[in-house]
Amino acid sequence: MATESALPWPSIFAGIRGVLMLAGGIFALLSPQLALATLVWVGGVIVIIDGALGLWGLLFGGRTSSRLGVAITRHILAILAGILIVAFPAMAAAIGISTLVILVGIMMILIGAFALYVTIAGRALLRQGTFWPEVLSASAYLLFGVLLLVMPLSSALVLVSIVGVLMILYGLFQLYIAWQLRSIEVKVA
């Protein structure tokens, strides 16, 4: 049986993924505002492509629909929304990200409130020593939700920075995997 010393393509792909994740993570950490604007801009381009492909499919795909006018209007509106997002990414980011962060804040407050209620109402059923950790956990949800509601854009930038750190860690892990894949010996029959 012969052996080959390395699997080149999996290690190359893992290495490329690692480098891209590292670059994206460093970019998000060094400039979270620009990273957020870039993400919004890319989202706008994707919405334009989605609308254009949907319109193309409706007009040239050979299928007819009883709601063709509604579908065409939907795709035209998607294209227009994408153009507005690409043309005004800062405004789109402020409106879209703020709305999303506010919704997450409301969810965190609801989760915290329900967890606190269940913890207090079911105090007798909890094991010894688990009441206060549960109260602290519920309070952390409440505090996080309030912070998201009070400062949605600042919170979004902090979340971008957290994602940047996670991307860096994932990138380093991918580079480690790429290095490990290089040293695997493959048995060839």
UniProtKB/TrEMBL annotation:
InterPro entries found in the cross-reference section: Acid_resist_chaperone_HdeD, DUF308_memb
Keyword Transmembrane helix: yes
Key words, A-Z: Membrane, Transmembrane, Transmembrane helix
Ranges annotated as spanning the membrane: 12-30, 36-60, 72-91, 97-119, 131-150, 156-179
Alphabetical list of Pfam families matching this protein: DUF308 (PF03729)
Keyword Transmembrane applies: yes
Gene Ontology cellular-component terms listed: plasma membrane
Protein name: Cobalt ABC transporter permease
Biological source species: Devosia insulae DS-56
